[in-house]
Design brief:
Helix content of chain B: over 70%
Number of helices of chain A: 7
Mean pLDDT of chain A: 92
Strand content of chain B: under 5%
Order of helices and strands of chain B: H
Radius of gyration of chain A: 20 Å
Low-confidence stretches of chain B: none
Largest sheet of chain B: none
Structural class of chain A: mainly alpha
Shape of chain B: rod-shaped
Structural class of chain B: mainly alpha
Oligomer: heterodimer
Shape of chain A: globular
Low-confidence stretches of chain A: none
Number of strands of chain B: 0
Chain lengths: 232, 52
């Protein structure tokens, strides 16, 4: 296994810094929202993690196509890494949304179209790991995984678009929202700074974690190969 | 004029969940990496004498 590249170490450091800055902007720099109070500050991390979550699911679908076309295992490693990191981020999105909903909607959870599609998306990718764990042959596992992420990837644009197409109580940050939306607010310039920086910060952190996870996948493959050699 | 509701507890819970989840994921990758490196060392030492 190759030693850790300097670029990755630099990216690690940048990730910690941007996470710190994003936290400062969300907790201190951005003003307190007048209607919801302090809980509105989770919005910056909620949208930031949702963005990288859905981005990763789309990237996994694209790498699934790349694997099916090339049969190169590097695309399988990329796909698994993207799904794992995105599932983790999307879990944060859902939990933060639920925490925000309690004071804003007076409930932890409701089967609103956005919440439902988000929960279905998360469950699709949890099931992806269960599917992979049940297949021993690496090539068959990669092929099934590629087809699965290709189909599962459809849930990402559906989750993104659902609040723009259906009547929902979930507010829309950019674009027109449904008349039933509750808990929306107009962003001040300082809130916008915190919001766009959070999007940037989580993109950097996502790339960093993705890179680490891809390297871990490479190491895993090497160990599996050696196990086969030793047992022969 | 209405006062701003006190929702600080929810905010703290949200940030704790976000940092804890990311922390657990990073820790899990570190542990998996460490275990795989151990396995690799052991398998390489088993593989070499056989090839001799």
């Amino acid at each position: 296994m190759q030693s850790k590249p300097i670029a990755l170490t630099i990216l690690d450091i940048i990730s910690v810094i941007v996470l710190g800055v994003a936290t400062y902007l969300a907790l201190v720099f951005a003003p307190t929202e007048a209607v919801m109070g302090q809980v509105q500050r989770v919005f910056y991390f909620h949208v930031g993690t949702a963005w990288v979550g859905l981005l990763g699911f789309v990237l996994a679908a694209i790498s699934g196509i790349a694997y099916l076309v090339t049969k190169d295992m590097k695309w399988d490693r990329f796909e698994v890494a993207a799904v794992e990191v995105s599932t983790m981020f999307f879990f944060i999105t859902i939990v933060l949304g639920s925490i925000w909903a309690r004071p804003a909607w007076n409930t932890w959870w409701t089967w609103d179209p956005r919440l439902t599609t988000a929960a279905v998306t998360e469950l699709i990718y949890v099931a992806y790991f269960m599917l992979r764990a049940g297949i021993e042959d690496p090539e068959k596992r990669a092929r099934f995984g590629a087809v699965y992420t290709l189909l599962g990837g459809l849930s990402a644009p559906i989750t993104f678009m659902v609040i723009r197409l259906f009547r929902t109580i979930h507010p829309v940050v950019i674009g027109n929202q449904s008349a039933e939306a509750q808990g929306g607010f107009s962003m001040t310039p300082d809130m916008r700074t915190a919001f766009f920086f959070a999007l940037f910060a989580f993109t950097v952190i996502f790339i960093d974690l993705l890179w680490h996870r891809i390297r871990l996948g490479g190491l895993q493959e090497k160990v599996e190969q050696l196990k086969l050699n030793v047992s022969m | 004029m209405e006062s701003i509701p006190d929702t600080t507890g929810y905010m703290i819970a949200g940030f704790v969940v976000a940092f804890a989840t990311m922390g657990i994921h990073v820790l899990s990758m570190y542990v998996r990496n460490r275990n795989l490196r151990r396995d690799l060392e052991m398998l390489e030492s088993m593989d070499k004498p056989e090839k001799k």
